[in-house]
Specification:
Structural class: mainly alpha
Shape: globular
Number of strands: 10
Strand content: 5-15%
Low-confidence stretches: 247-252
Helix content: 25-40%
Oligomer: single chain
Number of helices: 13
Distance between the termini: 63 Å
Radius of gyration: 25 Å
Order of helices and strands: HEEEEEHEEEHEEHHHHHHHHHH
Strand order of the largest sheet: 1-2
Length: 371
């Protein structure tokens, strides 16, 4: 069938139509660009990532069917819906693009369903988890703010242990999840956190509250993992057929792509990344005297964890003793929670990350929990 053209191209839809293309942004000034009749050489150079062969285990080749994203599929590419329940399309000058395409990291491998037509399959040979690669990043004549921007992008703003990058064509099926750590720094005059702090301050001047913006919350949520695969699947052709049959105005039955944070609203922390200016403050001794039940204690400790990302040995000792005292008090709602393994070391969300594995094991032995 003939494909009906829309009135407006993607470049004519917000926010792209508001971009100042005659001005260089930070990424272009660092990495350069090449356009017809105009180019700028980049100042950052990534070397080959060489494998530690002792960590490499090759898995069996996989065959998958990779969906090809189509920008013309406006239910997913544009923010929806109008007040009357109808779709925004590229015919609407007030339409807004949803953002950049990104695959959320997954905790498990998804085995795809293959049809009879093998001609549309793509094949690849993945590596098992635990593979380690090392590379060098070289740069020339970068300003302090630009170095901070580069380090922030690589480490998720000094959160490399919490979040993962996604690379390769196997991303939709759980492959390609990588963590990037900075092992050494040569010829840098300051600590890596100092450079990121310079970048953070510059960003606050141009876009106050950027770390709490919807875009950053979406990025961090999708990079964290730990979400149910029930909601992380490819749309199938039958969905497209059902969409075409839907009558205009049937709001509740119509398809649109919700934001990641909306789908997993009960699992996304309100403050995914706190400013370095807050996180790098000296850690104060915790005052836990007012907490007599596990639920309120856990809520408070998780808030403090989001700030410090770790606890001092002194604070770990306070936490250990407080949990032990709650158990000894035989507070029934608290004991009910502490009898569940999920509050100890399942996913490392609570007691494991507060105390570390050694103290957690000791506390288990002393309390006899979980049961």
């Amino acid at each position: 069938m003939y494909k009906l053209p829309f009135k407006h191209r993607i470049q004519e839809i917000d926010p792209i139509k508001g971009y100042a293309f005659n001005e260089k942004d930070l990424a272009e000034s660092i990495f350069g660009y090449s356009e017809q009749g105009n180019s700028l050489k980049g100042r950052v150079f990534f070397g080959h990532a060489l494998a530690d062969l002792n960590t490499i285990t090759c898995m069996k080749p996989r065959s998958v069917i990779l969906g090809g994203p189509k920008a013309s599929y406006f239910p997913f590419y544009l923010k929806q819906f109008k007040d009357n329940g109808e779709y925004f399309t590229y015919d609407d000058i007030n339409a807004i693009l949803r953002g950049f395409k990104r695959y959320p990291v997954k905790d498990v491998i998804i085995e795809p369903e293959l049809g009879e037509n093998q001609d549309v399959c793509s094949s690849f040979a993945p590596l098992d988890k635990g593979a380690i690669f090392k590379t060098k990043v070289r740069f020339h004549n970068l300003k302090s703010v630009e170095i901070g921007a580069l380090l922030s992008a690589i480490t998720f703003h000094h959160n490399a242990d919490r979040y993962s990058h996604n690379i390769g064509l196997g991303k939709p099926f759980g492959y390609g999840r990588v963590k990037v750590q900075i092992l050494s720094k040569n010829y840098l005059k300051k600590d890596v956190t100092a450079y990121m702090h310079d970048f953070e301050e510059a960003m606050e001047k141009h876009k106050p509250g950027w770390l709490k913006s919807d875009r950053m919350r979406e990025l961090i949520a999708m990079a964290g993992g730990g979400f149910s695969n029930e909601f992380l699947t490819y749309p199938v052709l039958s969905d497209y057929g059902d969409f075409k049959k839907t009558k205009i105005g049937e709001f509740k039955d119509r398809q649109a792509l919700d934001s990641f944070c909306e789908v997993f609203s009960d699992q996304v922390p309100s403050n995914s990344i706190l400013p370095l200016s807050v996180r790098l403050k000296p850690q104060v001794n915790l005052d836990l005297t007012c907490y007599s039940d596990y639920e309120s204690l856990a809520s408070h400790l998780n808030e403090q964890w989001d700030i410090y990302q770790n606890f001092t040995d002194f604070n770990k000792d306070l936490i250990y003793k407080k949990i032990k005292s709650i158990v000894d008090s035989k507070h029934r709602p608290s004991l009910k929670k502490l009898k569940k393994e999920s509050h100890w070391d399942s996913g490392g969300k609570n007691i494991l990350r507060w105390l570390g594995e050694k103290l957690m094991v000791e506390l288990k032995k002393e309390t006899g929990l979980p049961k």
